[in-house]
Design brief:
- The chain is α+β, with helices and mostly antiparallel strands.
- It folds into two domains: 77 residues, no CATH class; 78 residues, OB fold (Dihydrolipoamide Acetyltransferase, E2P) (Beta Barrel).
- The chain is 38% helix and 29% strand.
- The protein contains three helices and five strands.
- Strands 3-2-1-4-5 form a five-stranded antiparallel sheet, with no helix packed on it.
- Strand 4 and strand 5 form a beta hairpin.
- Helix 1 runs antiparallel to helix 2 and helix 2 runs antiparallel to helix 3.
- The protein is elongated and about 70 Å long.
């Protein structure tokens, strides 16, 4: 296998591994355990909105593991192409695993943009909820606040009930 082919395969492996670091902070994304759960629904109007940074994770986790696996495989492929033999594979795999682990951890731990919404509830009172950027909602927009024991999310109110 030539160097260009090995490099392309290696980059593809890293891309697949990194894409596993999905952002679950959006109001549109649900974890499997959240499906089929009853949520209290409160209606309201967004009074204010501001851009905030949300920390995804603290410490190492699946990002480091996925990065290490992808980096090791990619490094071994590239190492084999550069120095056809076991020694090249081992050195390339080790260097790739270290680099992939560091990159995966950095991607997993990066801050993401989100919004803090302050909502005046129809039932009285106000609440503040912070979530990812999707769906992006506007000041003055009618929304539903879905809440249960594990958290809350804000989604557009698509009903005609005012």
């Amino acid at each position: 296998m030539n160097f260009k082919t090995s490099l392309c395969i290696g980059c593809g492996v890293i891309g697949v591994c990194v894409s596993g670091c999905d952002d679950m902070l959006s109001g549109n994304n649900y974890k499997r355990a959240e499906a089929k759960q009853v949520n209290k629904v409160s209606r309201g109007i967004i009074r204010t909105k501001r851009l905030v940074k949300i920390q995804r994770h603290a410490g190492t986790g699946s990002g480091a593991g996925l990065g290490a696996a992808g980096g090791a495989l990619s490094g071994a492929l590239i190492g084999n192409a550069v120095s056809s033999g076991t020694k090249g594979q081992i050195i390339g795999g080790a260097v790739g695993a270290l680099a992939g682990s560091l990159a995966g951890s950095a991607i997993q731990n990066r801050n993401v943009d989100g919004f803090e919404y302050i909502i005046d509830l129809d039932e009285g009172g106000s609440i503040a909820i912070t979530q990812g950027k999707t769906p992006e909602l506007s000041v003055g927009q009618r929304v539903n606040v879905l809440s249960n024991n594990s958290g809350a999310r804000v989604v557009p109110d698509s009903s005609n009930v005012f």
